[in-house]
Amino acid sequence: MNTVSEAEGDIVREVETAGARIAEARSAVNDVIFGQTKVVEETFITLLAGGHALLVGVPGLAKTRLVHTMGVVLGMEDKRIQFTPDLMPADIVGSEVLEENEQGRRNFRFIKGPVFCQLLMADEINRASPRTQSALLQAMQEQHVTVAGQRYELPRPFHVLATQNPLEQEGTYPLPEAQLDRFLLQIDVDYPDLAAERRMLLATTGLDETPVRQILSSEELRSAQRLVRRIPVGEQVVDAILELVRSARPEEANVAEVTEHVAWGPGPRASQALMLAVRARALTDGRFSPSIDDVAALAAPVLRHRMALNFAARAEGITIPGVVDRLVQRLG
Predict the structure, then answer these.
(1) Domains of the chain, with CATH numbers?
(2) Domain ATPase AAA-3, which positions (predicted)?
């Protein structure tokens, strides 16, 4: 019993220490990114859970700036790829070039692509061809790339924050459902409120802008990621996660909104994502264990890109967020 108590005490102290450091890092990001507190929180949750995020929002909402700011604050090497229809897989992962040395001997040398970084922004990922999308998504899943039969490991940590513009869908290649599942969260980036936009307007159009400062190192982030997986989860929270995810599947649901309107629902990876996300959310608040409130708060970001409505539901104006809200209400 003493051993268990001591172990719990160690985790509590680690959570409190890590939570304070993460709160400092979040504050540093919020000093630069105005009016997007929820977006910043969900981005931190994604990184702490060791996952990737899909940022969905119209242009001009500081998505690019958010990624660069997160890289600086967390001490991660960040890079950006602008996805276009003519982008090739080699433009992401790299390619081999034929070189000739002083003795006239020729050999191939691998030149690493921009995917070899710790925090990658894939800007407007749905503008590239499916083949190019697959090259990135495979790297996200496997944490390595293979070129000419040679395997190259990606840096650790490695995270992708991809953006998608909900407007101007002509000439785009929507991500297939199986590939969307690779993203831990879908983070919707909305317009800032009036006060935040006023503050942003005054802060960004003058001579001086708030400098971005590093708070954590990439090693501290990896340590926090390992801590997330050690945070205990109560049986009630586990049951709530399973109930929520399974009730979103039309084959298993006993909710009319799901059986009538949902074409297909989330797989087991959604349960895994939600389990890691609620642990990470608890850590960002310096709490020892997640609660059902964490499950409710993260239900939409975890599920909305893992579900699809049938034609009749779309014709009636039914939305995925509305269905998820109904399922969350059932959790009590």
Answers:
(1) 13-84+116-204+215-230 (3.40.50.300), 234-332 (1.10.8.80)
(2) 52-185
Collect all residues with Cβ–Cβ distance below 8 Å to 254 and sequence separation of at least 6. Answer: 247
Instruction: Centre a 10 Å sphere on the Cβ of residue 309 and count the other Cβ atoms it contains.
Output: 18
> Is 66:199 a contact under the CB 8 Å cutoff?
no
Tokens 């990876």 sit on residue: 269
Report residue 48 as tokens.
Answer: 């702490």
How does residue 1 score in pLDDT terms, banded at 50, 70 and 90? very low
What is the C-alpha to C-alpha distance for residues 87 and 294, in angstroms, rounded to an integer?
A: 39
* 3-state SS track over the chain: CHHHHHHHHHHHHHHHHHHHHHHHHHHHHHCCCCCCHHHHHHHHHHHHCCCCEEEECCCCCCHHHHHHHHHHHCCCCEEEEECCCCCCCHHHHEEEEEEECCCCCEEEEEEECCCCCCEEEEECHHHCCHHHHHHHHHHHHHCEEEECCEEEECCCCCEEEEEECCCCCCCCCCCCHHHHCCCCEEEECCCCCHHHHHHHHHHHCCCCCCCCCCCCCHHHHHHHHHHHHHCCCCHHHHHHHHHHHHHCCCCCCCCHHHHHHEEECCCHHHHHHHHHHHHHHHHHCCCCCCCHHHHHHHHHHHHCCCCEECHHHHHCCCCHHHHHHHHHHCCC
Per-residue pLDDT of 231-269, as tens digits, reads: 999 999 999 999 999 988 888 777 777 788 888 889 899
Instruction: Provide the residue count of the chain.
Output: 332
What global pTM score does this model have? 0.88
